[in-house]
Amino acid sequence: MPALEMPAFETRVSRPGARHSLAAVFAVPLLAGALLAAFPAKAEPLGVTVRNESVNATCAETDNVTLKLVSDKVQKFNISVRHPAYLGMLLVDNTDPDWETCDMSGDPVVPADAKAPQPPTAAPKRITIFETPDMWLTGFVFPTFWRAATVPFRIGGDVTQGLHMVQLWVRAEGKAEEVLVVYPPDGYWRARPMSPAHMRDTAYGSSFLVGPVEQAERPIVRLKEVDFAPQTRTFTLHFAAGGKARMQVVKAGSDEVRLEVQLDGTPPGTFAALRSMYVTEGNADVARVAWRSLGSGKGGAGGIMGEAPVLSFADAQNASMLWAGRLVPSRHNTSAPDFIFDGFQGR
């Protein structure tokens, strides 16, 4: 932004009865207006309700952790995905699934092709739907999924149908990695920062939902269509319940993936959620939560910080930040990232 040119002020004392020009009379108000225009007032922070609907579980592959963000006023917010605090000390990373004590026999199974279903062991079909040297999107069609793949994925005038999963890959800091995934049939997202120098790769862990969350055997967001604008790395989510959201990938680096979300015309209520798993402190993708509540002072000053184990966490009111993650390594997805939801602004 160019520097503001300060008007010259007359230093002589005016004579009694002297006439002042209009420029002199309005110099200070005009300067104040210019400064206000150049530096817009910072939006007041908004507090939201965090509802904990987590339950006990023994299966490490079951999403028994559910944290819902609820507000009738939110229009904008941020999601930051960061490596766990212990990652620099991590020597062994365990990303193998743990099916012990798990029974998935009752889960719905919807074939990708109802007329010619493939066996569950068939290989997924992979499609490159957009590609540049520094960014590309890869779509997958699985033999089966728990919901039908009916959500079109659009990039400009090109539409791809029948996708169960779409990966966003970026090339940065001398390497290429997958940093974001969306499952269009149920509205689930996963994200991870690029791996640090001492590790080849890191794991996904928790999932998150953006938009009107509803219950359909599990929490989901029903999407009508997903658009992607490569120039700005922005996903536009069109919701079956009404309205849309623009989610921009503003950062994808080795320390953080940061997403800025803007809601437009969505119904009031639950506007986002985190889904994860917890069996024990040492077998979890999310083990603890921390939150900051707004105070009554200017800009929310005077608020408090709280933290708790995820299963014993009671709902938080007027929260301006929610962190969900781990402080000690887990034998399940050991390198999986922490999540921060903040920057809530009103409609």
What features would you describe in this structure?
This protein has 347 residues and is mainly β. The chain has one domain (48-346). Helix content is 5%, strand content 43%. It has one helix at 22-38, and strands spanning 48-52, 65-71, 74-82, 110-111, 125-131, 135-141, 144-145, 153-155, 158-160, 165-172, 175-183, 188-191, 207-210, 214-215, 219-220, 223-229, 234-239, 244-252, 256-264, 269-276, 278-280, 283-284, 288-293, 304-309, 316-325, 338-346. The chain has a 20-stranded mixed sheet that branches. Strands 4-7 form a two-stranded antiparallel ribbon. It has a two-stranded antiparallel ribbon with strand order 14-15. Strand 21 and strand 22 form a beta hairpin. The longest helix has 17 residues, at 22-38. The chain is globular, with a radius of gyration of 25 Å. The two termini are 27 Å apart. Residues 1-36 have low confidence and may be disordered.
Total number of distinct structural domains = 1
Estimated structural class? mainly beta
Strand content: 35-45%
Shape: globular
Average pLDDT confidence is: 87
Number of helical elements: 1
Query: Any idea what the radius of gyration is?
Result: 25 Å
Separation, N- and C-terminal Cα atoms = 27 Å
What would you call the quaternary organization?
single chain
SSE topology string? HEEEEEEEEEEEEEEEEEEEEEEEEEE
- Counting DSSP E segments of at least 2 residues, the number of strands comes to 26
Major beta-sheet overview: 20 strands, mixed
Which parts are unreliable, with pLDDT below 50 for 5 consecutive residues or more? 1-36
Give the fraction of residues assigned to helices: under 10%
